[in-house]
Amino acid sequence: MSVLFPFLVPSFVFTCVLIFLLIVNSSVLSQAKTTNTTCSHIQLSIDYYTKSCPQVEQLIDSITSQQFKDVPVSAPATIRLFFHDCFVEGCDGSVLISTEPGSNVLAEKEAEDNKDLRTEAFETITKAKSLVESECPGVVSCADILAIAARDFVHLAGGPYYQVKKGRWDGKVSMASRVSSNLPRANSTVDQLIDLFTSKGLALEDLVALSGAHTIGFAHCRHFLSRLYNYEGNNKSDPIIDPRLLKALRMSCPHFGGNTNVVAPFDVTTPFLFDHAYFANLEAKLGLLASDQALFLDPRTKPLVQALGEDEQRFFQAFSAAMEKMGSIKVKRGRRHGEKRKVCSMHG
Residue of 73, 89, 129, 210 with fewest CB within 10 Å of its CB? Predict the structure, then answer.
């Protein structure tokens, strides 16, 4: 198994596991243009539920801890779910809504860009919401539960523990048609990434730090297939990608007729650990997505990639700050703009 990755530094504990990860079927893992900006006038608070549901974080932690133990892929899945929620309509739990039977308007989760969102993430929020409702009925929003769960998983995977400000209400709008223009693509240029993140009130360092969430998680072959066979339409591979990684990925992801469920890790060195190895991988030309590798190639983002790759604590601090900023995007408050759902997948 290890022969496909002889180029990886031997000190990395996970090297011998990587080939399995590259060819693993994602179903097996389950066993193992509206501009959104940060709403500065709505203040979130760490102590928002101190009187109404003081044990909310402990309740959610009991779910996320067990879920991480039973199904580790829940961690990157839930962090990604939070990102997709905040970037479309703001951090309001709108990504959790299911399309109403017979409705002509598809909900966000039905959008093409959200079809890869894993069921384990939704299941985590459903379990947490059910437990919280049993103790504090009608008090805690699904949006806040998602924000807290994402933080828990960051920490459980080895990343920083940061305080989550709370007070979000759940959104009343969830439309698949609003998703595509508000999410980055696997082949986004740095210009496109900067424009998108700026439209959300996020700075350049936030962009690079949040990209570091790709230190854990996986991507399906179709998101990087063009890098392997037809980069920029030239019928050749991306010249930037390390040739040994290219060879390993091609073995797992053939140009035509491959298994659509095959996934590869974003971080080929420590795929299950939330650390700063992602940035060192970019320097070593081991980035999986074109949009990730572009961060090291662009002079505006390269210094940040290098700085965060050299100092894990700086990455943790920058990531924590960026998650707080992202968690404040277009927050809803009050019954005019929001709701407190009893079931996260249903309005009302």
Answer: 210
